[in-house]
């Protein structure tokens, strides 16, 4: 899938992608600075999209670690399956509210998300956040990219601590919320 096809998918499904463009390299780097890849056995990504964040994760992933990427767009999934054929990367065409079905008793060290929580129905986003928290180890982190600082209150309902950073080097400028 070419960049123009990816952009068409992005704009034609704005309510599920929640972005006007893909995450910048600066934003991805800022998000990934909160991840300690050494020793992380399982990482989950919610909303794989065009694979911008996925690529950053895969580039740093230990060979014996596993990455599960949840994406509801079939075309994004097909594109990512071609981009990331590694055995330790699973592209899952399903909603993030179904995380538990795919864990097989494992716990994740990190859940990284770029889901557009502002556009997701309250009951669904609560289910996604509950599933994410349940999926994490006791020392695990939920890390979210978002465009509204007000979402911090949503994350505080599910996680004890929420630290926030900001970058202007993205269109639009974005927050990275690190939740524990």
Describe this structure in words.
This protein has 180 residues and is of the alpha/beta class. The chain has a single domain (3-8, 22-179), classed as Vaccinia Virus protein VP39 (Rossmann fold, 3-Layer(aba) Sandwich), CATH 3.40.50.150. The protein has 7 helices and 7 strands. α3 packs across α4 (52-60). The N and C termini lie far apart (36 Å).
Instruction: Tell me which CATH architecture applies here.
Output: 3-Layer(aba) Sandwich
Radius of gyration: 15 Å
Highest-level CATH class: Alpha Beta
**Low-confidence residue ranges:** 13-19
Structural class: alpha/beta
Overall mean pLDDT = 91
Q: CATH-wise, what's the superfamily?
A: Vaccinia Virus protein VP39
From the spread of the alpha carbons, the general shape counts as: globular
Tell me the number of helical segments per DSSP (H or I, 4 or more residues long): 7
CATH-defined topology: Rossmann fold
Strand content: 15-25%
Between the first and last Cα atoms, what is the distance in angstroms? 36 Å
Order of helices and strands: HHHEHEHEEHEHEE
Number of domains: 1
**Largest beta sheet: what is the strand line-up?**
3-2-1-4-5-7-6
Largest sheet: 7 strands, mixed
List how many beta strands DSSP finds.
7
The helicity comes to 25-40%
């Amino acid at each position: 899938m070419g960049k123009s096809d990816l952009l068409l998918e992005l704009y034609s499904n704005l309510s599920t992608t929640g972005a006007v463009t893909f995450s910048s390299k600066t934003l991805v780097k800022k998000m990934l600075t909160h991840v300690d890849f050494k020793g992380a056995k399982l990482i989950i990504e919610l909303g794989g999209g065009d694979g911008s964040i996925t690529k950053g994760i895969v580039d740093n992933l230990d060979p014996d670690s596993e990455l599960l990427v949840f994406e509801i767009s079939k075309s994004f999934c097909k594109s990512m399956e071609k981009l990331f054929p590694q055995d330790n990367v699973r592209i899952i065409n399903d909603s993030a509210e179904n995380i538990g079905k795919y864990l097989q008793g494992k716990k994740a060290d990190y859940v990284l998300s770029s889901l557009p929580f502002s556009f997701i129905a309250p009951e669904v986003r609560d289910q996604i956040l509950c599933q994410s928290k349940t999926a994490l180890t006791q020392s695990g982190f939920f890390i979210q990219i978002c465009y509204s600082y007000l979402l911090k209150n949503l994350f505080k309902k599910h996680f004890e601590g929420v630290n926030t950073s900001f970058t202007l080097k993205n269109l639009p400028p974005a927050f990275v919320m690190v939740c524990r």
